[in-house]
Amino acid sequence: MIWEFDSADYEASQIAWDTRNDYCENLVPFAQERDWAAYFDGNDTTGDPGVIVIDLGNTENTYYRENFAAWYQDALDDTEKYMK
Question: Which run of H or E residues covers position 75?
Answer without folding.
Answer: helix 68-83
